[in-house]
Write a structure and sequence with these properties.
Length: about 180
Amino acid sequence: MIALFNGFEINPIHSGDAWKVCNFCVANEDRLKRYFPKTLEQNLNPTLSNYFVESKVKAFENKDEFLFTLKHSETRELAGLIYLKELNWETKQGEFAYCIGYTFEGKGLTSKAIKHLSQYAFNNLSLETLQIIAHKDNLASVNVALKNNFTWIKTLINEFTPIGETPLDMELYELVSDSCKVSKT
């Protein structure tokens, strides 16, 4: 377990998560289709979810990408998924992407999960810079960045193209580890 807070826990993805991930994706299809289309298409049925989870477990083990689950500790219901992706081990940088289920939104769970995972990334993975890329109209995602002291860096022009839409400008936020701030001053 990575962290425990408010009756929820963060864990690395594991092989037993396939059914929960499938159920989460199907139940939150409308929510995932714009910003998480690949995750959604890879989890439309239990067989696909098994392949998805298997590949994400391998990616975690190889340190290519980290996928974490946010679950209710008592019921074991999957509340959300948090990716740490676009890892660059030379520059010690990674990007968070996250989605929370309908029934768990508005409770501050994603903000708390990012707080814990930021510390995990700095302390356990030796990353120095973490990024969040969000659309300016996705206020919940922007607020997760701001609540965790990520700093707005710039607008990324035509950064992301949702399926069937024109390219969107996205906002880049970054958080630099305290150890890097100290060493740079």
